[in-house]
Amino acid sequence: MSLHSFLNALASSQAAQRNFFDQARRAMLVALARKYPAISHALLEDVAMQVFQQLWSGLIGEFFSTHPPGSDAFRQDLVRYLAHVIAPRRLVDHLRRTGREVPVSDWVRPGEDDLSEHALFDQVLPPCGDEVTASAERAQLLHRLARCVDHLPPRMRDVVQQVLEDVRQADIARALDIPEGTVKSRMSEAVKRIKRCMGIGKERP
After folding, report:
1. Quick one: DSSP state of residue 178?
2. Is the dihedral of CA 42, 44, 47, 49 positive or negative?
3. pLDDT score, position 116
4. How far apart are alpha carbons 22 and 68 in whole angstroms?
5. Angle between helical axes of 72-81 and 3-11 (0-180°, round to 10)
6. What percent of the chain has pLDDT over 70?
7. How many Å apart are CA 85 and CA 79, to the nearest integer?
8. How far is CA 24 from the centre of its chain?
9. Tens digits of per-residue pLDDT, 22-50?
10. How far apart are CA 6 and CA 15, in angstroms?
11. What's the mean pLDDT in 187-200?
């Protein structure tokens, strides 16, 4: 089943459509607010709606997932793609189209203890450029990232997968019955392995 078929199936169920809408909307608002904290919530909501329109029109470019189409994991990959690739570009396009300055200085870089999904992507993936080709390249990198996560040792993969679900470090530690320091060290080692897997030889500043 292709993305087009997935969307058709989604449209046939109001409950599934509402669930996907709520999940994707929240992910986009969180990702945009972290990257552009000075932008108003109302504008971020508008951007999220524009992304949904773009999605239903089939204009989100190439989307990749290593998971079976229609599965929960496939849907989560799509949500992350919308939140971290399409929504930021849509916001930048909107700001430029309306003559507003893009607040680059407001970008939030993850701190040393930040284990959020945004932080993981920011550690592993290069910044998304302003051109359409950059978004396509980033989509390819997201595809490779997912494959590399799948090949991690189970003890690391368990941590990374919960990070990607936006679970807090303390909650991950409780769920896996390990110290928080172990969660952090496993995540650090996982990021190094993912970088090697993706052929990224240098640490980003």
Report:
1. S
2. negative
3. 47
4. 22
5. 100
6. 74
7. 10
8. 10
9. 999 998 998 888 777 788 889 999 999 99
10. 14
11. 82
Structure tokens at 61: 């470019």
CB–CB of 183/102 below 8 Å? Answer: no
Would you state the structure tokens that stand for residue 52, as one six-digit string?
Answer: 């949904």
- Cα angle vertex 148, ends 141, 137, to 5°? 5
Residues 205 and 169: their CA atoms lie apart, in Å, by 23
Q: What's at 91, amino acid-wise?
A: L
Q: Within 13 Å and on the Cβ side, how many CA atoms surround 194?
A: 25
Q: What angle do CA 55, 35, 61 make, to 5 degrees?
A: 25
Q: Which residue stretches of the chain are H helix?
A: 3-11, 14-35, 41-56, 72-81, 87-97, 117-124, 132-150, 154-164, 169-176, 180-197
In the structure encoding, which two tokens stand for residue 146, read together?
């997912």
d(CA 188, CA 160): 10
Structure-token match 């930021």, residue found: 88
The candidate with the shortest Cα–Cα distance to 175, out of 155, 191, 189, is 155
Each domain of the chain, given as residue ranges in start order, spans: 1-108, 110-205
CATH class of the structural domain 110-205: mainly alpha
Residues 6+ apart with CB under 8 A from 87: 28, 31, 32, 47, 48, 51
Looking at residue 43, its amino acid is L
